Please model this.
Amino acid sequence: MKAGKRLAPFALGLVAMAHAAAAQDLNILTWEGYAPETITRPFAEASGCNITASYVGSNDDFAAKLAAGGGVYDIITPSSDTVPLLSQAGFVDPIDPAAVENYAGIYPEFSQSPALNLDGITWAVPLIWGSVSLIYRPDMVPGTPDSIAVLFDPAYAGKISMWDDKSAIYWAARYLGYENIFDLTDEQLEAVKAKLIEQKPLVRKYWASAGELTELMANQEVYVSNAWTGLTFKEVNGLNKGFTVAEFNPKEKSEGWMDSMMLVKGTPNQECAMKFISYMQSAEGQCALAASTGYFPVNPGAVAACMDEATKKERQVGNIDFVKSLVMWQQPARLDKYIEVWNAVKAAP
Amino acid sequence: MRGKSVLARRSALPVLGLFALPVGWAFLLLIVPYGIMVAISFWTRQFPLFVPDFQFGNYLQLFSDPQYYTVILRTAKIAALVTLAATCLGYPLAYYLVFVIKTERLRALLYMLVIVPLWVSYLLRTYTWKTILGTDGALNSALKWLGVIDQPISLFLYNQWSMVITLTYIFIPFVVMPVFAALENIPRNLIEASEDLGVRPFGTFLRVILPLSAGGVISGATVTFCLAFGDFVAPVLVGGPDGTMVANLLQSQFGAALNWPLGSALATVVLLIVMALLWLSARLDRAGRVALG
Model:
């Protein structure tokens, strides 16, 4: 009893916390720009669920954060190349597509893709998609570049950047003419590694986040890089620095990615989580996210009314053929080996 | 003897109560985690995660794959350069504060100015160096304005030098503080005696002041080296493609690679390096200690 008395204030505090949690919280681990007020506020009004967003810098962060004890998050939004790993590691619960409103409106190429549906079970619901192309300074790069070669050109020594990610392997592999970029042999990986190490003296900085690339471009640190199509372009040109940047799809192809929503295993906020997944397939959700990021909606039906014709064209709405012009990300067959190679490149002198 | 033991017995409980919290804290949050870390370093990576095991493969990998020892050696080199630079700049600064500044108030003010950056976020201070050293940064702008250069110099940022410059700036207070304390504690009559005996000022410095402040230098240098050795922010913010340090490697093993066993092995090696250094520093300190009295 004595102990009970002493613990009373503490217990009261716990009750207060539990009550706050009952006021419907939803914790999302996602990318910067994916939880703007244009989404969180109307969603809270419609559902009574308050979104708290945390951010990742790369797809590798999702599994790392969940492995370190993931009780904090309810929804994660990895790219489709990371979706299989998360279900294989047992960090997520399956999703019932029938419980997702507007699910049928999603491009079937995305919603039915093997990466999202393992053994007939749906693990992820598409959210948004886009491409990774090349960005450059037309005033500094003469002519019209048409190849990944620009990232390896000594003429731009010290003015080249690349995303600090295993995807650097995909770019170097395409430049070397390999087709099986997600399943390279040991010899091919050695060649890719050598090419990337050869490129290092030309690289000013590997960028870690979209914000960092914008800064590198805006401060004239670099002239060429790979970049999230639309995003860096829009941000750098929006700064009116007295120069502009342009984007292009190299003849070796640009990359395509698609982010999906996954349900963290055993989340206590499943109701809010499912409401959120449905909300993001609505006109409000898809259009707000597309507007805030500059990326492409996955649900063409949903955006029919909330996007003007020019934006629809720019965001490839209904143009699924565009996907076929891209190399869509897949989980590498030997993920460990790829990460080891990329780490070896970065460790090299 | 008997009375003493009674006293000891009587005070055992309160003493235990007094120290239970700090000792329990140290045990639970320091010793137990180290044990877990060492244990995991013998586990095996098994895609997509890892499984308990007892094998030395992780350590073997660390010493056979050049990517790991290259980075450890690079980290040691950068930490050594930072320690050297911070000591060479911090010692004269502390000396100036203690022996040259005559008024107590001015000394306290200047000392505060050296220490006060520690109140500002470490991240912010590192980030600031980017705006100083960058292509469009303050340094290049100033040099251009002065007419020294007409094209911005890119060598200032995104390489190992910019990391050394940034870390030196950040860790100088950690040298100044112990050296300042050591210099202040030197009895002034020793210096006067040396001067009275006709030893020139530089001789007095070499034979009296420097030996008596060696302890401050050793502790400042040790702290600086250890902090620089474990830094992971400078490589990310101001380092270039060749700037990966051991803490970044650790981050990658616990993050992207999801290989906690290898990461734990690496962390254990880093821990041993730091412990060896602390041991060496303690020995140096003891050996160099001058008996006063």
Notes: The first helix of chain A runs from residue 2 to 22. Chain A has two domains: 2-129+256-317, 131-254+330-347. The interface with chain B takes residues 58, 60-61, 63-64, 67-68, 85, 88-89, 158, 166, 200, 203-206, 208, 219-221, 335-336, 339-340, 343-344, 346-349 of chain A (CB under 8 Å). Confidence is low (pLDDT under 50) at residues 1-21 of chain A.
